[in-house]
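Possible regression after last week's pipeline update?

I re-ran a chain I had predicted before the update to compare outputs. Posting the input and the new output here so someone can diff against the archived version. Not blocking, just want to make sure nothing changed silently.
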Amino acid sequence: MEYLAIKWLHILSATLMFGTGFGTAFYMFAANRSGNVQVISVVTRWVARADWWFTTPSVIIQPLSGFWMIHLAGYPLTSSWIMWSLALYALAGACWLPVVWLQLKMRDMAAHAAAAGEALPARYWRYEKWWTALGFPAFGGLLVVYWLMVHKPL
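New output (post-update):
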């Protein structure tokens, strides 16, 4: 595969990863603020699906296409922008993995509460605080990675 085709795949997967992540985070955050258990149940179900269908493949494609482009372009892996990108990507991943677990647990709690006509348990709201807090370093780190990908400072 030629460099520009891999670059297109890399940009597309970065866009899907960040866009899906930011979009689903917005809707889940908004649904949680509504306090409507039925809405929260539906949104958490779709957020979990979107992470599985879009974010997960993008998370896998990003480093594969990135390393392939680095190889084709002849950049040394020790370039500071590459090392920072990898470190920040790892930070985002370290935040994202528990977020996925939290989302699945929140989805299940919301589905149970909606089906039973009950309020969400206190544990849901504890998980929601962690879910929100983990999003800030993940998205912030990815914004810096975007900047590094574009500018490639040495």
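Follow-up from reviewer: compared with the archived run. Helices lie at 3-34, 37-73, 80-116, 122-151. Marking as no regression found.
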